[in-house]
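FAQ

Q: What does a record look like?
A: Structure on top, sequence underneath. For example:
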């Protein structure tokens, strides 16, 4: 007989259950799954069994060992959402919005001192809070990336409560739409970690490289399509296979590298962050892709006053992506903008602001 406590699970990160549930391999999938808040298909997937396997047979007849059951339970519990973390995300987004819209732009100041309008300190504080509190303290879930994936996992019956997954996804998308991708820019813990590494002052001399958006976005979209084809069993023939499970860098915040590929993904993403801006976000993250599409509907975002813009290129140079280039050139679908505020500091003629679409009368009409 195993219990969650006996398995050592209670001593792991805070998102995990405090209840003590008895499990053993004489039980069937249909006995165990409801106690863990997953469907029989969801538990079968965690046990690396076909998701349509019999749910009534004792686990030992399905050749499941105690170790495999232990591992599956631990992984399922590591995905339990911490409610507190939703509040932390909302608070960090609010901090970013207030700073970008109001506090970063004092009234009646000289344009020449624009560099001082948006000091980096509030941004760095938000990033540090994100990594420490929304990351290591509260564990990996919920996070924007998993919110997208769980909606699709629900569609193949891996969760008993699809509507809850849709609501969680809606929460992150709403935050991404209120401020242009601001949940990624200011609150996502793995995004914040990459941003901090990219911004380390002592490493500023390392040559930073901007990648063509068409390349990074195509790779990101290919990952997403591969995820759908594998998850629905259209290729591979194994319904319920989740490619992101093997490259989920948020596991870092539980210090849980169950597959070597996860550790490798984290190491590569963080090393590459020294020279390329947020590589995981640009190349892989499904929320990065979805929120890039959602940017078209964002309420607050970078706007450029066409009348004032002299096309000097200062914002293009400051932007770590091709976002500012798209802005200046009036592209309909420019690269991701993470609301990082770098461009806000450099415009010599005060043509760039972080404002709402409703401000068309005040500013020009080019929107990211
Ligand atoms: S794109 Fe980056 S910042 Fe946004 S959810 Fe994904 S990892 Fe986080
Ligand atoms: S510098 Fe680029 S990514 Fe940052 S806010 Fe400006 S346009 Fe967006």
């Amino acid at each position: 007989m195993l219990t969650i406590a006996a398995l050592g699970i209670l001593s792991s990160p805070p998102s995990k259950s405090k209840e003590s549930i008895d499990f053993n391999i004489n039980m069937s999938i249909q006995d165990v799954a409801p106690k863990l808040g997953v469907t029989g298909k969801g538990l079968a997937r965690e046990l690396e069994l076909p998701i349509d396997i019999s749910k009534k047979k004792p686990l030992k007849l399905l050749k499941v060992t105690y170790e495999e059951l232990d591992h599956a339970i631990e992984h399922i519990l590591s995905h339990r959402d911490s409610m507190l973390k939703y509040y932390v995300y909302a608070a960090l987004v609010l901090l970013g919005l207030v700073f970008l819209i109001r506090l970063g732009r004092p009234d009646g100041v000289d344009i020449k001192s624009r560099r001082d309008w948006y000091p980096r300190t509030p941004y760095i504080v938000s990033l540090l809070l994100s990594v420490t509190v929304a990351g290591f303290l509260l564990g990996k879930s919920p996070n924007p990336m998993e919110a997208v994936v769980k909606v699709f996992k629900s569609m193949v019956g891996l969760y008993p409560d699809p509507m809850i997954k849709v609501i969680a996804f809606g929460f992150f998308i709403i935050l991404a739409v209120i401020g242009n991708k601001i949940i990624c820019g200011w609150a996502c813990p793995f995004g914040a970690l990459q941003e901090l590494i990219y911004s380390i002052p002592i490493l500023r001399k390392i040559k930073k490289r901007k990648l063509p958006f068409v390349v990074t976005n195509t790779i990101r979209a290919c990952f997403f399509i591969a995820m759908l084809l594998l998850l629905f069993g259209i290729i591979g023939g194994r319904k319920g296979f989740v490619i992101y499970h093997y490259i989920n860098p948020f596991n870092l915040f539980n210090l849980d590298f169950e597959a070597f590929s996860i550790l490798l993904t984290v190491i590569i993403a963080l090393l590459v962050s020294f020279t390329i801006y947020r590589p995981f976000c640009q190349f892989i993250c499904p929320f990065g892709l979805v929120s890039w599409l959602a940017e078209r509907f964002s309420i607050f975002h970078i706007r450029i006053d066409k009348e004032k813009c002299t096309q000097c290129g200062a914002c293009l140079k400051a932007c770590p992506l091709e976002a500012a280039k798209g802005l200046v050139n009036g592209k309909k679908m420019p690269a991701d903008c993470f609301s990082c505020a770098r461009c806000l500091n450099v415009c010599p003629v005060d043509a760039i602001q972080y404002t709402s679409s409703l401000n068309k009368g005040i500013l020009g009409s080019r929107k990211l």
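Q: Is there anything notable about this one?
A: The domain at 296-367 is CATH 3.30.70 (Alpha-Beta Plaits).
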